[in-house]
Write a structure and sequence with these properties.
Elements (H helix, E strand, L loop, with lengths): L12 E4 L4 E3 L2 E2 L6 H8 L4 E4 L6 E5 L4 E4 L8 E5 L17 E4 L2 E2 L8 E2 L4 E5 L9 E5 L28 H14 L9 H7 L7 H4 L5 H9 L12 E3 L5 H6 L26 E4 L4 H9 L3 E4 L1
Parallel strand pairs: 1-8, 13-14, 14-15
Antiparallel strand pairs: 1-2, 2-3, 4-5, 5-6, 6-7, 7-12, 8-9, 10-11, 11-12
Length: 299
């Protein structure tokens, strides 16, 4: 006789102090990354993408842990699922059953108020139209405003020659690789930080984040990429959840065409570009890239 036993969840113990957050003795600081969460929670049951924004999702079914993020390398929060009163894409099959102890006191899900520390915040998540929380969120404390250098987002002329782009969509794909993946193009743009830094007017993300914000778009148009970075680009990968697009349009659906690549002519300036995975590009661009010796395919 065969016995099919349900896999037991990995015990999850979360310990928070004023200084740090530990998950199964693994220190987690935000923004974190996929590798750190795997060290803390174990290998996820599933990964996928949300239906609309195509943002990456990481799911631990047995443990009741869920994470939707802009990219695997820059994760600002994860959720401990408490109920099914939500409409999340690819949610865990089970509820969270571990323990959370913050400042030597166990967090009780039914009697809980927001806990803030400079390095992280613990808060309830309530789905629209519901009254009961469906999860606890642990993530970066974006309310803790750190001093931003006054000149951080001031773009000064480069001493070296820079690349001249004819196609803005192609430039954004290059920025995603050099600024957010390789992290060599500076300053690294972060929307909420830019919002706090900008003094010409108040930018309200909650109201304006459903359309491109002119000042943000202009920053990416103005930033220069030195020619000496061109050989470092070997691949471009477009995805609705790319950080460059999440910063350009905070509440996008992933189906926008603002940043479609219309021409592959700029690819000629990148001698080592050999692969392109595209989701924001006109049909002719694929053939143009293939003609240049680039393995181009649709996402």
């Amino acid at each position: 006789m065969f016995s099919f036993l349900k896999k037991k969840p990995k015990p999850i113990h979360i310990l928070g102090t004023d200084e740090q957050l530990l998950i199964n003795d693994i220190a987690v600081t935000f923004p974190t990354n996929y590798e750190t969460l795997v060290s803390a929670f174990g290998e996820p049951s599933r990964t996928g993408k949300t239906k609309l924004s195509k943002s990456p999702v990481i799911c631990w079914d047995n443990e009741g842990v869920y994470c939707s993020c802009g990219s695997y390398g820059n994760i600002f929060s994860f959720s401990l699922i408490l109920s099914k009163k939500h409409e999340l894409d690819l949610p865990p099959k089970n509820k969270f059953s571990g323990t959370i102890i913050i400042n030597n006191k166990e967090v009780q899900f039914n009697d809980f108020s927001k806990i803030k520390h400079s390095n992280y915040i613990v808060s309830k998540l309530i789905y629209k139209g519901q009254e009961e929380p469906y999860a606890l969120s642990l993530g970066a404390n974006l309310e803790d405003k750190k001093e931003i250098p006054k000149d951080k987002y001031i773009l000064r002329p480069l001493e070296d020659e820079h690349i001249e782009f004819t196609d803005f969509g192609f430039k954004l794909a290059v920025i995603e690789e050099l600024m957010y993946t390789q992290e060599i193009l500076q300053p690294k743009f972060e929307l909420y930080e830019f919002m706090e830094w900008y003094t010409e007017r108040e930018i309200d993300i909650e109201k304006e984040g459903y359309e491109p914000i002119a000042e943000v778009t202009q920053f990416f148009r103005d930033i220069k990429i030195p020619k000496n970075m061109a050989p470092l680009l070997t691949e471009i990968y477009q995805d609705g959840g790319n950080e460059v697009y999440m910063n350009l349009l905070r509440f996008g659906s992933g189906t926008e065409d603002y940043w479609d690549i219309k021409s592959a002519v700029d690819a000629k300036q990148f001698p080592n570009l050999k692969k392109a995975t595209l989701c924001y590009a006109e049909d002719a661009v694929f053939n143009e890239m293939i003609a240049l010796g680039i393995d181009a395919e649709s996402l």
